[in-house]
Amino acid sequence: MSCWMPGCLALSMCRGLAALPITFLERAKDLKTRLGILLHKPELGHKTGSSSKLQLGSRRRDSSREVLEWRESFDQLLKSKSGVNAFHTFLKTEFSEENLDFWLACEDFKKTRSKTKLASKANRIFEEFVQSEAPREVNIDHETREITRKNLSGATSACFNEAQAKTRTLMEKDSYPRFLKSASYQDMTKQATSRGTGKWSHT
Description:
Layout: H1 9-19, H2 22-39, H3 43-69, H4 74-79, H5 81-93, H6 97-110, H7 115-130, H8 142-151, H9 161-181, H10 183-195
């Protein structure tokens, strides 16, 4: 049955298509061509999936290596953001997280460039962590506390150095060894060791 026959359904369809804008028909053809290309190239999706798996495996190996490095030294732990978070969580169980919070506050304080902000930050840190009966008083000796108090009169980026060093030594000698022996860190090292056996190389 051809389109020239009167009353023909095909004629109505032809007229309907003729009424469509040319740009619409061109877009439809272009879409069909693009879909055909995608359908005939499934390897594109496969490559993308493989790449994401490799990246995920690489991140896992890096994080596992990092976890194992925490036991090498206290410095290695403090250099790692996730290590600091894990250590902070452990200190909370011992109700001594103020030591790490004070150390971190001092690290942030040293980056302050404005003299006005330096003075206000110094007073805030002293009142929160250093002065006697402070809300989150750190465990330092009376002499170090008084030296720090005097440093506030002419606050510089180094005014907490001695108190920070004492607190760091306390954490390194006391809390850090317990952290390494804790069940939470032991679990983390077991997971890190099992991940490092080369399982990802087959994914």
